[in-house]
Design goal:
Elements lengths: L1 H22 L11 H11 L8 H11 L4 E3 L15 E3 H8 L3 H14 L3 E5 L5 H9 L4 E6 L2 H14 L4 E5 L2 H12 L4 E4 L5 H11 L8 E5 L5 H11 L6 E4 L3 E5 L7 E4 L3
Parallel strand pairs: 3-4, 3-6, 4-5, 6-7, 8-10
Antiparallel strand pairs: 1-2, 7-9, 8-9
Amino acid sequence: MQFFTSFKRLMYQACGYLWYVCTARHRRGYGLHSPFMFWFHQQVLSSGYRKKLKRLTNRTRTLLRDHRTIACEDNPGAGSSLLRTDREKLPHIVRRSSVSYKYGKLLYAAALEFKPATILEMGTSVGISTMYLCEGAPQAQVYTIEACPEKLAICRENARLMGHNNLHPVQGTFQQVLPGLLEQLSSPDMVFIDGDHQKEKILGYFEHIIPYIHDDSLVILDDIHWSRQMSQAWQTITQHPRVRVSVDLFRMGILFFKRELSPERFTLAY
């Protein structure tokens, strides 16, 4: 039954990606009439930061050679279909459930260009995406939530070695710690939602976050086409009255709330 469910999900992802390739528009930003979206495409989606991220990619390679076993007794969310047990080798987690360089560079560029003062990450894993956020916004206070203590320990180790003194790891499930953390942060400038792939929960987290979002906030969701339910959740979120512009990059979805922007829905080639 598990194999059939995973196979069906992989087929959905493959068909979804083929549809995305055929329908995604504005390659290299051509044809984008919105000045804001053209700026976003040029400064965030099209920027290259390979030299600036060399230290981070070297740290990722070190983790890929680290064969520690990570044990997580309870996995509250629906994670990667390729991660099936409560005990996994660290390289396996980095390869299969952490953000890739392509999308990590996107997080870095977004944090660099929007210069958030406060970042909230929901779903740390072993902290690969967290490092991209910290590198992109060294001036920001970065709060990241993870339920698994052993994964969070790797994240803290990364922060120590990378010198990310602006990182604040928070252990617990989203249900346990999100309400109190939002009260503490008051109004996050950037939110990255990852770590749970269940439609109703994602919609619930978004409804929890939306009262704290301001006009200049940026919200990024990971794995928006991970399953049919996640695609449905993404479509529901993009129709929220507070959302002015949404950007579908197949793996990630980006939301803007600026009132001066005309309501638009983009599927951009990335």
